[in-house]
């Protein structure tokens, strides 16, 4: 497997911006920037910070739409993966997020930076599962 179009500077800048945003959110609102937790909290009865959560999730969607308008080539029009497989993968990710009490953004970006042992274990599990999945799909099942 070869890395194609590796762009270390934009990747570094993007990572720094994600870290900065997570820090600002924690310092200004006392909230962890875990996407699944913020999104999931929209549907919990009695949630008092629904406007904040809605704005956060809306900002994610609006940012993607702005990028689509400004740089449409950033979004591929075809996928080498069939839609049913993508749907199954999405359901598995959602199940894993519930099982692990959080997602990669909450555990990987925010939890590790707060030296949370639970987040370190969750992130190690996410990564090991990802490595195993790539190994199986590329070397055992013969994918690209």
Proportion of strand residues: under 5%
Query: Would you tell me the structural class of the helices and strands?
Result: mainly alpha
How many individual domains? 1
Give helix and strand order, one letter per element, not per position: HHHHHH
Number of helices: 6
| Shape estimate | globular
Q: Give unreliable regions as ranges.
A: none
Q: What is the overall pLDDT average?
A: 87
As a whole number of angstroms, the C-alpha radius of gyration is: 17 Å
Helix percent reads 55-70%
* Total strands: 0
Quaternary structure type: single chain
Taking the sheet with the most strands, its summary is: none
Ends distance = 8 Å
Give a description of the structure:
By secondary structure, the protein is mostly helical. It has one domain (8-140). The chain contains six helices and no strands. The protein is globular. It starts with 7 loop residues before the first helix and ends with a helix.
Concise structural overview:
The protein is mostly helical.
Show the helix and strand layout.
Layout lengths: L7 H22 L5 H6 L9 H21 L12 H17 L4 H10 L3 H24 L4
Helix pairs in contact: 5-6
Which tags fit this structure?
single chain; 144 residues; mainly alpha
């Amino acid at each position: 497997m070869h890395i194609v179009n590796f762009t270390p500077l934009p990747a570094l800048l993007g990572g720094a911006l994600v870290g900065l945003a997570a820090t600002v959110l924690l310092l200004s609102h006392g909230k962890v920037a875990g996407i699944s937790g913020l999104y999931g909290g929209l549907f919990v009865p009695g949630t008092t910070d629904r406007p904040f959560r809605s704005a956060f999730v809306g900002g994610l969607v609006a940012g993607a739409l702005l990028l689509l308008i400004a740089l449409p080539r950033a979004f591929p029009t075809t996928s080498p993966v069939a839609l049913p497989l993508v749907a199954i993968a999405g359901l598995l990710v959602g199940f894993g997020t519930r099982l692990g009490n959080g997602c990669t953004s909450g555990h990987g970006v925010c939890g590790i930076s707060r030296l949370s042992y639970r987040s370190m274990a969750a992130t190690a599990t996410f990564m090991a599962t990802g490595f195993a999945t790539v190994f199986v799909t590329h070397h055992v099942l013969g994918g690209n």
